[in-house]
Amino acid sequence: MKQNKLIFALAAATLAAGAVQAKEVVVRIGHAGPLTGPAAAFGKDGENGARLAIEDANAKGIKIGGDTVKFELVSEDDQADPRTATTVAQRLTDSGVKGVVGHVTSGASIPASRIYEQAGIPVITPSSTSPKLTQQGYKMTFRVIANDLQQGNALGKYAVDQLKAKKIAVIDDRTAYGQGLADAFANSVKTSGGQIAGREFTNDKATDFMAILTKIKAMNPDAVFYGGMDAQAAPLARQMKQLGMTAKLLTGDGGCTGEMIKMAGDALSATTFCTQAGIPLDKMPGGAAFRTQFKQRFGNDIHVYAPYAYDAMMSVIEAMKTANSVEPAKYQPALRSLAYQGVTGPVAFDDKGDIKGGSITVYNFDAGKWAPLQTIQ
Amino acid sequence: METFLQQTLNGLVSGSIYALVALGYTMVYGILGLINFAHGELVMIGALVALQTVTLLNAAVPGLHPVILLLAGVAVAVPVCMAVGYLIERIGYRRLRNAPRLAPLITAIGVSFLLQTLAMIIWGREFHVFPQLVSTTPMQPMDGVVVSPLQIFTIVVAFALMGGLMLLVNKSRLGRAMRATAENHRVAGLMGINANGVIAATFIIGSGLAALAGVLFASNYAIAHYAMGFTPGLKAFTAAVLGGIGNLPGAMVGGLVLGLVESFGAGYIEHLTFGFLNSSYQDIFAFMILGAVLIFRPSGLLGERVADRA
């Protein structure tokens, strides 16, 4: 008993001493993304990017409102699951974070954004590209990457202008992502002077596309666009080959993955194109330096979105500096009018919270990997 | 015309796989009156076990002929699925033989979840590439129609298996025992038939067919995944109902009809409805046909021939 009391007393004394010594203010900023499950690599990548930004900011000893600020990362796992995302968002807001970087997937970002909006905490996603996220009219939602509308627009224009495709068939998987992307693509093709030969549909669990492809083949299009994920795009590519179709295959970022290359195998060729929001690392203004720093700190290479997570975190910190306050209500207006030169390029938001002039890169399948062809602003 | 032939071929390929899976549903229903919802998962297990075998064998002895790899994959997948099928029946359903009908049905759904989760733990959540062991290079028997050796292989294997099953059920001693048990397993037991053995045999045969269907399915789409059994399972169940559940030829006809309806539905629904409906309704189209058939023939196309079910 006596010993216990002694330990308590000692512990209390240590805590008190610690509190007195630290004159700096601790500001907690959240990161939310999938750290387990199939999309875990994306979540960990974002977490590392955000962590790097916090360490850089702490190294500078930033002063806000007269106090030296020590930033602290609170990382949460949303498993890329909409329901878990809302739980995680609630936990972050309850724990008193002043801002959040995340979530990684659109399916998680959209339901979580409502909770941050109600709590009045700014949230900046590094990688959710669904247009719906910023169409909700929320004041606290921001995004540092181009959205799917911009992606579909860019690819549609590219297909007609650069690939000289006149007749294009469009397939989508009827998900929020696939349909949004396909609609944007089809509109862009039409405004660029191309023709939509046919509009076909499937679902995000399908594996057999022979029937719709046979129908499309009879229309003899120059290109086929698929709006959806790689799990469908890969068998679709194989079945196009099996049917002897020579039309070009175009997909968005859902099909612009390493999995797509693995699963579609020899069905991919120089006539397969895809887009990704953002620009390749070596084309980013601070790309090379970031790659070295990241590798040095974490011992592995950047997956995809780490530079965007870094910029998202830096945007929060920059806005706090400009507003000279760490309180969300005070620094949110500064975020609105932010003009910050990030690793990925200039970061400034439009009135919806989308990044201004977000870039899209068109990739082409070449020698077993996606080779960047052109970056469109 | 070319498009029509191509769509027929597409429908036959997916339809013959549905038919193989549907046989498993209908055999079990014929004997036990139970919808074995775990049957679709056996398709998945068949595909993943075959994939695992092919991968291991290829790593151990590189450069084997694809046909040998395929046969080895099948040679492992079929017994594994048969064993799983037997265990499901022995552990899951046998004790519930005289329980109310809902009990084994709910058990079947539980077994389905269990198998899927086990497969997820063993093989992970990612999509696996199933190697193309039979060529998929398109051939053109006539202008505008393409067919690959794999598609011909799929249809031939499926029909051969269906023919074999019909022979087994109608001509062999085991088949006669199965038909007798289907009529009344208590009376069959009194006649000296080991009803439990016959029921186990039914599960084993159905599971073997599911394994083969799984290998055909995965080869055709070059993909294997822990959740891949759900959709073909559901479609095959639909096919079994369409043909008349409990009726073996019905399951085959139902599978082929469903495959063709889906294919033509996706291909022609827009023309048939003058652009009012499009291919996003292709699944609904298949179920509309099912609904229509069941309104006019409540027991399916060939009927639920109770006296002859097996």
Structural description of this entry:
Chain A: Belongs to the leucine-binding protein family. Chain A: Residues 1-22 form the signal peptide. The complex is a heterodimer of chains A (377) and B (310). By secondary structure, chain A is of the alpha/beta class. In chain A, strand 10, helix 9 and strand 11 (272-277) form a beta-alpha-beta unit. Chain A has two domains: 22-146 and 283-347, Rossmann fold (3-Layer(aba) Sandwich), CATH 3.40.50.2300; 149-277, Rossmann fold, CATH 3.40.50. Chain A is elongated and about 75 Å long. In chain A, helix 2 (40-60) packs parallel to helix 11 (306-323), helix 3 runs parallel beside helix 4 (106-119) and helix 5 runs parallel beside helix 6 (176-191). Chain A has helices at 2-21, 40-60, 82-94, 106-119, 148-161, 176-191, 210-219, 230-242, 258-264, 287-298, 306-323, 328-336, and strands spanning 25-33, 63-64, 67-77, 100-102, 123-125, 141-143, 167-172, 195-201, 223-227, 248-251, 272-277, 340-341, 346-347, 360-366, 369-376. Chain B has one domain. Chain B has helices at 2-32, 39-60, 66-93, 102-123, 149-171, 173-183, 185-190, 195-221, 230-243, 248-272, 282-296; strands spanning 128-129, 139-142, 145-147, 223-224. The longest helix of chain B has 31 residues, at 2-32. The mean pLDDT of chain B is 90. Classes of the chains: A alpha/beta (377), B mainly alpha (310). The A-B interface holds A 37-38, 174, 199-203, 205-208, 210-212, 214-215, 217-218, 231, 234-235, 238, 241-244, 259, 262-263, 265 and B 2-3, 6-7, 10-11, 13-14, 125-127, 129, 132, 136, 138, 140, 146, 148, 217, 220-223, 225, 228, 230-231, 262-267, 278-280, 282-283.
